[in-house]
Amino acid sequence: MKPLRLGCIADDFTGATDLANNLVKTGFRVIQVNGPPTAPLQQEVDAVVVALKIRNVPAEDACEQALKALAWLRAQGANQIYFKYCSTFDSTPKGNIGPVTDALMNALQTRFTVATPAFPDNGRSIYKGHLFVNDRLLNESGMQNHPLTPMTDPNLVRVLQAQTTRKVGLIDQAVVLRGASAIETKISELAASGVEVAVVDSIQNQDLIELGRAVKALPLLTAGSGLAIGLAQNHGLSPNPLASQLPTPKGRRAIVAGSCSQATQGQIAHAIKSGLPTRQLDIAALMRGEDVSASLLDWAATQFADHPNACPLVFSTQAANEIAGWHSRFDAAKLGQAIEDCLATVAKALVHAHGVGQLIVAGGETSGACVTALAIEQMQIGPQIDPGVPWCYAPLQHSPISGPTAEGGGRMAEGLHIALKSGNFGSDDFFTKAFAILSSHG
Question: Which range of residues forms the domain containing residue 326?
Answer without folding.
Answer: 245-441
